[in-house]
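Title: Comparing notes on inverse folding

I've been comparing how different people in this forum approach sequence design from structure. To keep things fair, I'm posting one structure and asking everyone to reply with a full sequence. Here's the target:
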């Protein structure tokens, strides 16, 4: 399955450079999500509107924050991040715990 990069004001704000990433649990290396990372720098949070997979993690930007569970590894149950609102953009995200995940770059069709 391939996903296409979302292009919007958030992407432009980060310099227009994006990658599609496989986010994996560092502990057991299970794939946790497919995520679009915009701009340079470390992955410290995952914005809800940039999560493409799995289905239960998509569309969370439309939910109430209190209804969003912590980001958890589906296999080993490790808690990887907590939901919060990135104040600067009023944008829902998961704040990732330090070193909780690893990432692998996916090839995308331009
Ligand atoms: Zn795990």
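Reply #1:
Here's my take.
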């Amino acid at each position: 399955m391939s996903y296409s990069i979302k292009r919007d004001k958030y992407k432009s704000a980060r310099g227009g450079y994006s990658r599609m990433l496989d986010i994996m649990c560092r502990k057991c290396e299970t794939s946790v999500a497919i995520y679009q990372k915009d701009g340079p720098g470390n992955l410290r949070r995952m914005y809800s509107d940039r999560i493409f997979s799995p289905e239960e993690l998509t569309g969370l930007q439309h939910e109430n924050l209190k209804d969003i569970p912590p980001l958890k590894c589906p296999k080993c149950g490790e808690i990887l991040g907590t939901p919060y609102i990135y104040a600067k953009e009023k944008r829902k995200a998961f704040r990732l715990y330090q070193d909780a995940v690893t990432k692998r770059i996916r090839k995308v069709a331009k």
